[in-house]
Write a structure and sequence with these properties.
The structure holds two protein chains of two kinds. Chain A is an alpha+beta fold. Chain A contains 24 helices and 18 strands. Chain A folds into three domains: 197 residues, Aldehyde Ferredoxin Oxidoreductase,  A, domain 1 (4-Layer Sandwich); 167 residues, Aldehyde Ferredoxin Oxidoreductase Protein, subunit A, domain 2 (Orthogonal Bundle); 194 residues, Aldehyde Ferredoxin Oxidoreductase Protein, subunit A, domain 3, CATH 1.10.599.10. The chains are: A alpha+beta, B alpha+beta.
């Protein structure tokens, strides 16, 4: 009898309308644990080389993990993985909420979605039962409406829904999978993949009798977290002010991306800060299953024509920055409305905001005219223009059809130097943590297999001399004891980036929230991740074994990309980052240097076991127990 | 000289939403605002960690000289870690 997991993987063939259940052994779960690593096993096995990311051959994998549903903060996460329509390489994205725990309760550790339904459908999975149902009533509906219709149709207010909005249906390349109407597997276009399969929603409900090995130990771990949440200043700030609490801090580092990443400070930052949100539009602090941190925001806005309803949650920091400072907009009500629109249409808020910011810079420079933009005067600071472009993207209407391709593809069509204004890596635009300030992110943004991502490694401040004792103690648990300046990118910093990337990779496989678990300032540290896994499963795993899971996931992603031709030449940064920052503040004049990045990338390949072209070596894959991957990609 | 102190993060809820106006002697440094804040809010002395100091929207160390009219923002350690407060580090 498995402990910590159901031992069941549901495979659904949407073309044929059939399903089957795989029951992998314990070794399989100990090798992959869940989430992203487990998904990569299926992605590599089932997605044929060269498959169209938006075609029926792509496979969308949704996974919980061996710890999902435990009575501990930060464990209810679901990972979505498939070939990405933004990069052509691997796509991967995590989401919290109640869906992950409910999905496991419905009887399955993972759901593997193959083929394409001949008509719009949704999946109804309850207590192990699987039904493919007609989605005619909800196709075309925004997420909040679809959720309400599903609750009525199924007669159950407690269903959990992973769904796409109209953006996913219309194959906006950066469409998200929405968890209910207020959380998102946002990045890398997983919602577009779901839409390409004519799959509107996955609905789950159930009380599967999976059991944890040591409920008492889990209870103790949960209690420890509850009693330490308020004592951890960074985590408590997440509770009080949400992720937007970091915005004012970024301003004082010169690392708040402003006007399409040309500047690192925004003069209107206080008007869109987390503190201001708490004092004005915040209605509630929401949470994920069994989590005591409660970092999710619920806001209500009805002012100057801008509206936002609590049903759609509230803006995260990334949303506030990409629709705020990236666009030169200091209007919190307008950004809250933008967040709601993204959640209604089912859009990655980061890529939506960055694409609009790119269009705004094109407009400011005369590359795109008012006529090109359907009459919209897209100047930096024009909130109405930002919202109008967002609506067009969500509907693929007018110029929105061009922007729905993302800035990189749009720039290829527009030309006229607009390519120089893009800020993407592998088609995924940069999040709101600037690598000009936090230098290890230059490396991670460049080499991360699914593009620029701020949640794939620990950021530089935790490695400085000034870091807290808590940060230093936790980093030492994974062997990191050197102290380095934020803007250092020496081989020691590369080692920091690699080791923390591996731990974050573990967390994306065990599906742990990176605000609650982590190697530095978070509530729980690396050793407690091992404790959580052992208490959930009854295994006697070690830090070394767990870190291998993280390395395995990264190697599988690198192998997938190598197979698809997304190699070393894509592991770079946008040209804009090599030019000095302008504006005001401590980062004016700062730029990434080509030489430092090139050297760091080659140092990184050595640590990761890749050749000089980013392909994992045969020896590396054998060491990680992946001989079948070595065969599949012809590793040397 | 007149210095304005503003509170950010959890400090805003714990201490004050409103800015604090201080009158400091000439030659004062950024760290000199801390004892003055502690006088006004005794709990500030019992934080258990050092606050982060930003002068006119740039993190600085405690020895940074202040000038009349400066604004000092006080932060708790924020998720994403502490900034590198050594002089010149942020702009190197």
């Amino acid at each position: 009898m498995p402990q910590g997991y159901n031992g069941k993987i549901l495979k659904v063939n949407l073309t044929k309308g059939t399903h089957e259940v795989e029951t992998p052994d314990e070794k399989f779960f100990r090798t992959y644990m869940g989430g992203s690593a487990l998904n990569m096993h299926y992605a590599l096995k089932l997605i044929p080389k060269g498959a169209d990311a938006l075609g029926p051959d792509n496979v969308l994998c949704l996974s919980a993990s061996i710890t999902t549903g435990a009575p501990v903060s930060g464990q209810s996460r679901m990972t979505a993985t498939a070939k990405s329509p933004t990069s052509g390489g691997i796509g991967d994205s995590q989401c919290g909420g109640f869906f992950p725990a409910e999905m496991k309760g419905a009887g399955y550790d993972a759901i593997i979605l193959q083929g394409k339904s001949p008509k719009p459908v949704y999946l109804w999975i309850h207590d192990g039962q699987v039904e493919i149902r007609d989605a005619a009533k909800i196709w075309g509906k925004v997420t909040g409406e679809a959720e309400a219709i599903l609750k009525k149709e199924l007669g159950d207010e407690k269903i959990e829904v992973a769904q796409i909005g109209p953006a996913g249906e219309k194959l906006v390349r950066f469409a998200a999978i929405m968890n209910m109407a207020n959380r998102a597997n946002g990045r890398t276009g997983m919602g577009a993949v779901m839409g390409s399969k004519n799959l509107k929603a996955v609905v789950v409900r159930g009380k599967a009798k999976y059991k944890f090995a040591d409920p008492r130990a889990l209870g103790e771990l949960g209690k420890w977290g509850a009693s330490n949440t308020k004592q951890n200043p960074a985590v408590w700030d997440l509770h009080l002010n949400g992720t937007c609490g970091v915005l004012s801090y970024q301003q004082s580092t010169g690392g708040l991306p402003t006007r399409n990443y040309n500047e690192g400070q925004f003069e209107g930052y206080e008007k869109i800060s987390g503190e201001r949100m708490t004092e004005t539009i915040l209605k509630e602090r929401d949470t994920c299953y069994a989590c005591g941190v409660r970092c999710k925001r619920v806001v209500a806005v009805d002012e100057r024509g801008h509206k936002a309803e609590p049903l759609y949650g509230g803006p995260e920091y990334e949303t506030m920055a990409t629709h705020g400072s990236y666009c030169g907009i200091d209007d919190m009500a307008a950004v809250a409305e933008a967040a709601q629109l993204c959640n209604m249409y089912g859009l990655d808020t980061i890529q939506t905001g960055t694409t609009i910011a790119w269009a705004m810079e094109c407009f400011e420079r005369g590359i795109l005219t008012k006529e090109d933009l359907d009459g919209i005067e897209a100047r930096f600071g024009n909130a109405d223009a930002m919202l109008a472009l967002l609506r067009k993207i969500g509907k693929r209407e007018g110029v929105g059809d061009l922007l729905a391709e993302g800035s990189e593809r749009a720039a290829r069509k527009v030309g006229k130097g607009s390519e120089e204004l893009c800020i993407g890596v592998k088609g995924q635009d940069l999040p709101a943590h600037m690598p000009q300030f936090k230098r290890s992110l230059a490396l991670i943004y460049a080499v991360n297999p699914f593009g620029a991502d701020h949640q794939s490694s620990e950021h530089d401040p935790s490695m400085t001399e000034e870091a807290s004792d808590l940060e230093k103690q936790k980093l030492s648990e994974i062997g990191l004891t050197r102290r380095l300046p934020i803007q250092d990118l020496s081989s020691d910093k590369v080692n920091y980036a690699w080791k923390t990337q591996v731990l974050y990779s573990v967390m994306d496989s065990v599906n742990l929230c990176q605000f609650v678990f982590g190697p530095a300032w978070q509530l729980y540290g690396p050793k407690q991740i091992v404790e959580l896994i052992n208490a959930s499963t009854g295994w006697n795993t070690t830090m070394d074994e767990v870190m291998k899971v993280g390395e395995r996931r990264i190697a599988m992603m690198q192998a997938f990309n190598a197979r698809e031709g997304v190699g070393h030449d894509k592991n770079t940064l946008p040209k804009k980052l090599f030019k000095p920052l302008t504006g005001k503040g401590p980062t004016v004049g700062v730029a990434i240097q080509h030489e430092e990045l090139d050297r760091a990338i080659q140092d990184y390949y050595k640590l990761a076991g890749c050749d000089s072209k980013a392909k994992p070596t045969r020896g590396r894959l054998m060491e990680l127990g992946l001989p079948w991957v070595a065969e599949a990609i012809g590793a040397a | 000289m007149k210095i304005t102190v503003k509170f950010f993060g959890s400090f805003r809820q714990r201490f004050s939403r409103e800015p604090l106006d201080l009158d400091l002697p000439e030659g004062s440094r950024a760290g000199d605002v801390v004892p003055r804040v502690e006088e006004r809010f005794p709990e500030f002395a019992r934080l258990g960690y050092a606050p982060l100091l930003a002068v006119n929207d740039a993190f600085q160390n405690a020895s940074t000289p202040l000038q009349d009219g400066d604004r000092v923002n006080l932060f708790p350690p924020v998720h994403g870690g502490a900034p590198d407060a050594r002089p010149g580090a942020a702009g190197c």
